[in-house]
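Q: I'm building a small set of examples for a reading group on sequence design. Run inverse folding on the following structure and report the sequence directly after it, with nothing in between.
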């Protein structure tokens, strides 16, 4: 929100500098993001009036002007197209200093000059030349009543500054000058301008009936007819100036006044062209298949959960967000209906974003507007509007459903709780001063507590802790004492068999991975690419449409990160993440996972490295290394039922009969959908289970010799090498130390339905040397078991 400092000081004028004021406001939780002067640094510029403008004798585009400065006329040579007799413009006199550019950091000094043989005693200026606006079309034309000879900075209050505040969503009461002034008054202990809105008497009997068909959504609605207005009457300079410094452009007097009340009091208002209304006003929910063309020419299809302002025939406005074009005030408008209403924040929240809109009105209504402000606002708008456009005002028609208005429950603040929460003893009078100055009402005081009534404009105050926060921020967070807290802390019991999460992270980083942290919510379209048959866990109130689904896996986030890196010419990636995943089964369950991704070249660019790409065995090695940290033996089984993983390049990870995760290549359909021109390899493991390792047990190294035997067998092509290895380990007996698959062959010289598997068997005993007979007996047992279970033949 942007506010003019001079406008703020009309409400409350503490004897502190701008910087000190900004510091105090920021420390109280109303952060000031920027302080911007409304004009550049210049001097010696006054209001002047052009008396005459004659063509230059030797330059077609120049004019020789005679200018009245309140003293003797001056001759100025000017090239602006709009230089003409009668207009009042800024004049930089000889000796004036104007804002300079990059090549003139000290500023531009105006001197007496001769242009094409004609003397010029100054310079007529436009907005950009004074760094006081963006209009560079010509001279800055000032109002007709601008006093000739007056210093321009004084006349237009150009020493003013614009403060830009970044307010938190809970402080809707500060979305107005009145709210900010209240805060400044409390912080600086400066009285705020007393203001009581006078009732504007009705001079006409014209009115329109108002019917509340959705009182829970709109419990209060006020309307007032103002007829016979002059819509072409311009807004006064002071009104246009305040709007412009708040970031709003002047449109016409009616819209300008409603915007002014919005900024001054925080109450959004709207004006309808009375001639376009058919019957009375109805505040209702939208009907099925109802459409509305808004002021921005956008036609929207209304939903049944949308609140609209309508007449007897059609919807006129999207309540609390934007008016409709059909009933908008135009150049032909002669009578209007002013609207001032309270809309429930729950009804407005999210509606504007659902139509791609965000307006000043919706910004306030969805955070909460003072529900007792509507009559004051419509009286204030009437008071400002009638002197500008004329006309006569009818009576205020109010429709209200009081049971549906918000209720404010008094809050009890215990004196003991105040000391405990803030760590200091504050005098009771100071606590009462702070809270009552913020608008709360002291209802009751006892020796143990105060009871405060909450004002209608503070939607964020509901419990005792809220009052503690108010006292703390006004007293000053930086003034609160600092204490070192002492408390008992439970230390997590981690058994010797468990591996800490940080150990896995350090291990992966040591192997060239980079940790990423992604959002827990993803685009539902991305979820559909990876898990087309699994329902997404959708959010009811998402941040945005592309972040509306909770992740059921860490892999989509890693792939999205990969895509972001590829778009930035990073063609090699090794990424990992730990975090929660969310699955909807019988209920909602969450579990912590660890996942990784590798893509591109196996090694970084270097003259000594080859250019080979990562493959299935690289990701398999990474998974095996993770389990090796805990000393866990894993078994692998093919994984062919994962929709986002290649069925021929994937495996489930089993430990003690339990599936702990999977790894493999991303499915080609996923790669195509995500525009990946190379396969990406991923793994995802249940972190809690992976952390469960086993205690290492020391054993002596055998001093007896190892004996190696090789065996090559023919089996059916669909037999898994892992199954064969398990049979060998079971049949060979206790003397077997290690089994290694070292060759797989299928082709010429072998039955087309079979393949050759070659294993190396390593035998060693811990207490004696194995004999040839013992080894041969083990080999015979292995061959027999393989023949029985797989119909294997020795090759």
């Amino acid at each position: 929100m942007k506010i003019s400092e001079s406008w703020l000081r009309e409400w409350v004028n503490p004897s502190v500098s701008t910087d000190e004021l900004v510091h105090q406001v920021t420390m109280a939780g109303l952060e000031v993001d920027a302080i911007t002067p409304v004009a550049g640094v210049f001097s010696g510029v006054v209001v002047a009036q052009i008396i005459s403008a004659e063509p230059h004798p030797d330059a077609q585009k120049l004019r020789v002007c005679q200018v009245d400065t309140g003293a003797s006329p001056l001759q100025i040579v000017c090239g602006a197209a709009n230089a003409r007799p009668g207009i009042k413009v800024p004049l930089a006199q000889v000796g004036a200093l104007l804002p300079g550019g990059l090549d003139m950091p000290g500023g531009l000094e105006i001197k007496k000059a001769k242009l094409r043989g004609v003397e010029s005693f100054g310079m007529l200026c436009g907005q950009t030349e004074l760094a006081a606006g963006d209009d560079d079309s010509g001279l800055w034309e000032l109002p007709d009543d601008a006093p000739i000879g007056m210093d321009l900075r004084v006349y237009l209050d150009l020493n003013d500054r614009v403060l830009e505040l970044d307010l938190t969503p809970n402080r809707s009461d500060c979305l107005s000058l009145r709210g900010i002034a209240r805060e400044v008054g409390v912080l600086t202990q400066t009285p705020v301008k007393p203001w009581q809105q006078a009732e504007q008497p009705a001079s006409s009997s014209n009115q329109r009936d108002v019917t509340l068909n959705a009182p829970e959504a709109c419990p209060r609605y006020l309307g007032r007819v103002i007829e016979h207005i002059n819509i072409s009457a311009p807004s006064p300079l002071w009104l246009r100036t305040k709007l412009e410094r708040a970031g709003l452009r002047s449109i016409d007097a009616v819209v300008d006044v409603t915007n002014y009340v919005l900024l001054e009091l925080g109450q959004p208002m709207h004006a309808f062209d009375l001639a376009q209304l058919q019957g009375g006003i109805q505040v209702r929910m939208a009907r099925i298949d109802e459409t509305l063309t808004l002021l921005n020419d956008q036609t929207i299809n209304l939903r049944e959960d949308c609140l609209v302002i309508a007449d007897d025939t059609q919807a006129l406005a999207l309540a609390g967000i934007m008016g409709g074009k059909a009933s908008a005030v135009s150049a032909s408008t002669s009578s209007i209906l002013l609207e001032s209403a309270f809309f429930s924040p729950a009804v407005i929240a999210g509606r504007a974003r659902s139509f791609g809109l965000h307006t000043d009105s919706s910004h306030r209504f969805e955070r909460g507007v003072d529900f007792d402000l509507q009559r004051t606002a419509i009286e204030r708008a009437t008071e400002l509007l009638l002197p500008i456009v004329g006309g006569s005002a009818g009576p205020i028609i109010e429709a209200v459903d009081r049971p549906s208005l918000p209720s404010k429950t008094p809050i009890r603040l215990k004196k003991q709780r105040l000391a405990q929460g803030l760590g200091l003893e504050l005098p009771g009078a100071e606590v009462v001063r702070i809270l009552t100055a913020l608008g709360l009402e002291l209802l009751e005081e006892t020796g143990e507590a105060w009871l405060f009534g909450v004002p209608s404009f503070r939607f964020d105050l509901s419990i005792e802790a809220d009052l503690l926060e108010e006292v703390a921020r006004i007293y000053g967070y930086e003034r609160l004492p600092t204490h070192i807290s002492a408390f008992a802390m439970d230390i997590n019991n981690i058994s010797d068999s468990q591996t800490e999460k940080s150990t896995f992270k350090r291990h992966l980083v040591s192997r060239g991975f980079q940790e990423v942290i992604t959002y827990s919510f993803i685009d539902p379209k991305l979820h559909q690419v990876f898990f087309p048959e699994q329902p997404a866990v959708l959010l009811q109130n998402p941040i945005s449409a592309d972040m509306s689904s909770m992740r059921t896996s860490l892999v989509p986030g890693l792939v999205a990160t990969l895509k972001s890196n590829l778009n930035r010419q990073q063609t090699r990636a090794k990424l990992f993440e730990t975090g929660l995943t969310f699955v909807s089964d019988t209920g909602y369950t969450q579990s912590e996972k660890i996942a990784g991704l590798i893509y591109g070249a196996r090694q970084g660019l270097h003259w000594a490295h080859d250019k080979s790409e990562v493959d299935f065995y690289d990701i398999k090695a990474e998974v095996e290394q993770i389990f090796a940290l805990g000393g866990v033996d894993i078994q692998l089984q093919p994984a062919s039922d994962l929709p986002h993983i290649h069925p021929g390049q994937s495996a489930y990870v089993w430990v003690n009969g339990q599936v702990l995760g999977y790894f493999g290549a991303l499915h080609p359909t996923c790669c195509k959908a995500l525009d990946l021109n190379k396969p990406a390899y991923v793994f995802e493991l249940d972190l809690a289970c992976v952390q469960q390792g086993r205690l290492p047990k020391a054993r002596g190294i055998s001093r007896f010799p190892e004996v190696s035997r090789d065996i090559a067998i023919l089996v059916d092509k669909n037999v898994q090498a892992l199954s064969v290895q398990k049979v060998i380990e079971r049949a060979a007996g206790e003397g077997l130390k290690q089994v290694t698959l070292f060759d797989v062959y299928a082709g010429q010289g072998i039955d087309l339905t079979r393949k050759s598997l070659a294993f190396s068997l390593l035998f060693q005993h811990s207490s004696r040397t194995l004999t040839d007979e013992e080894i041969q007996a083990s080999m015979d047992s292995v061959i027999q078991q393989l023949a029985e279970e797989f119909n294997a033949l020795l090759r």
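The longest helix spans residues 772-790.
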